[in-house]
Amino acid sequence: MPGSGTRVPELPEVETVRDGLARHVLGARVADVTVLRDYSVRRHEGGPVDFAARLRGAVLVAAARRGKYLWLELDHPGEALLAHLGMSGQLLVSDPAADPGAPDHRHLRVRLDLVMPDGAPRRLDFVDQRTFGYLAVVGTVPTPDGAPGGSGSLRAEVPDGVAHVGRDLLDPALDVDAVVRAVRSRRSGIKRALLDQTLTSGVGNIYADEALWRAQVHYDRRCDALRPPQVRAVLDAARTVMTEALAVGGTSFDALYVNVNGESGYFARGLNAYGRAGQPCARCGAEIVREVFMNRSSYLCPVCQPRPRARRSPRAGTAAG
DNA sequence: CATGACGCCTGTCAGC
DNA sequence: TGCTGACAGGCGTCAT
């Protein structure tokens, strides 16, 4: 049911958040920091106290993203506030003066009290039910390929710890041919490669299934057995699906409210595969099925996405029969 | 280096 | 009613 269901943020959702932050908190100075849950800053090396100390007084000067990683550059050169939303993270911007009596969100983990350049107070809350997400203040390093790019900043720097993440499919500096080669050098199933954030980033379980459905490729097709045009078609499908979701989900940010859960792109545009077990395939009418792959659900059309012939020896697998 | 399994977390829901 | 286990699942870590 909508409202309580989980909507895991993938690239379009994170980009929508980044865009909202760019429009609502840039130029703000951090007046105060409250860490309500230490675990939510576990990636910050110096611990919660140091996390707050490093942020106090800093000005947020840019909002950038690569894949599902999001960061706010600080006016302290070479430092950034890194955020990953994990499975349930939200960044909520509000005006604390608008409704002083409003109760805090149940899953509030970190609060930043901000002051805008004109002196107006503003609040940035990190809310995260399942706490797979995190915030951290980290240094920035040059991108491995030396090229600018990414979304929201044309700077050639990324936070330390994000350098290993590949450019995403919406990044104009992405070398698609190189990604095709890298994917085809793998022996794993194509879905595993799609989810590998070091090859190309931003694709999660939901958009992976949608891309494979669209490209009519089974999730367990071996990467090194796919022809280059097939790999390219899968990547193109992933880009298309995410672009469409972004177009739909990105329209809900006129309010002073940055929300990854409220009007998520993939729910607004509708899904063709993910979560549709038992329902007819929109293309051929066959029943969509759910299977377990990599310990997570995979939804596919068994007719449009035929299973590859036998793969390697099923040594440790449960030979479900 | 490539590959794949595991655990971290909280909340919901089906089944007993 | 209350307990238990399955499920959701990104990603860092570890073993092979």
UniProtKB/TrEMBL annotation:
Needed co-factor(s): Zn(2+)
One annotated GO biological process: response to oxidative stress
Domain Formamidopyrimidine-DNA glycosylase catalytic, chain residue ranges per copy: 9-133
Coiled-coil boundaries: none
CDD domains hit by this protein: EcFpg-like_N
Catalytic activity: Hydrolysis of DNA containing ring-opened 7-methylguanine residues, releasing 2,6-diamino-4-hydroxy-5-(N-methyl)formamidopyrimidine; 2'-deoxyribonucleotide-(2'-deoxyribose 5'-phosphate)-2'-deoxyribonucleotide-DNA = a 3'-end 2'-deoxyribonucleotide-(2,3-dehydro-2,3-deoxyribose 5'-phosphate)-DNA + a 5'-end 5'-phospho-2'-deoxyribonucleoside-DNA + H(+)
Family annotation (InterPro entries): DNA_glyclase_Znf_dom_DNA_BS, FPG_cat, FPG_Glyclase, FPG_N, H2TH_FPG, Ribosomal_uS13-like_H2TH, Znf_DNA_glyclase/AP_lyase, Znf_FPG/IleRS
Keywords on record: DNA damage, DNA repair, DNA-binding, Glycosidase, Hydrolase, Lyase, Metal-binding, Multifunctional enzyme, Zinc, Zinc-finger
Single annotated GO MF: class I DNA-(apurinic or apyrimidinic site) endonuclease activity
PROSITE patterns assigned: FPG_CAT, ZF_FPG_1, ZF_FPG_2
FPG-type domain span: 272-306
NCBIfam families in alphabetical order: fpg, PRK01103.1
Homology family: Belongs to the FPG family.
Subunit field text: Monomer.
Name this protein carries in UniProt: DNA-(Apurinic or apyrimidinic site) lyase
Organism: Flavimobilis marinus
Lineage: Bacteria, Bacillati, Actinomycetota, Actinomycetes, Micrococcales
